[in-house]
Model the fold of this input.
Amino acid sequence: MRKPFIAANWKMQKTNSETEEFLNAFLPLVRGIDDVDILIAPPFTSLETASRLMKSSNVLLGAQNVYFEESGAYTGEIAPSMLIAAGCSHVIIGHSERRQYFSETDEVVNRKIKLALTTGLKVILCIGESLEEREANRTFDVLNTQLTGSLADVQLNDITIAYEPIWAIGTGKTASNEQANDAHAYIRDWLGKNKEGADSVRIQYGGSVKPDNVKGLMAEPEVDGALVGGASLKPDSFSQIVIGARG
Ligand code: PGA
Done:
């Protein structure tokens, strides 16, 4: 049995003081919940504040991105060791917005994953197809390409996969429970054929997850959690999603 894993991806939202305000309201709402892993990934500038406020809580801290070099002349980039020093246990890598707006390829994603893991971070790897690809019946091809490239020479310990169909992100259009489960089942099968330890990898669904659809998604056998954008920005809705994932 895989423990549900619910993660918030705040994207480019919330200042330090807004992060503080959120956590002061949110942490009491989820206090004592130990049957769901809960993670928040705020912007880099809020990591220290979040880490201080979450120190003795049941909520984990993640970053939304990382670079694939340990240090040096890479203006504007952040190394895995810096994230660990700031209190992160996890990092999200390969989000479709990074692939789309910042030209991240599977090769870049793979380099980032490798350095993050060897430095001691756990990784949430995001994959998923566009609407055009789904309509052309290419979903599984796309997932195969992304998994093959992103996970080249990577072992599955400390990896979570987030299946995020691009057409469902921020659009209010969720994949149906069956569509999500079918894609997750494909991913699980791929992992089983290509890697050791596929059964214990958690596969999150992402794309317009809300308090009112989380239970249906979590009832699917291959859905182990959610990566939540818009609905994670309010303490009430994010705590309801966490509670909805408890089974
Ligand atoms: P959304 O974003 O919940 O706002 O659709 C999900 C994500 O991009 O991780």
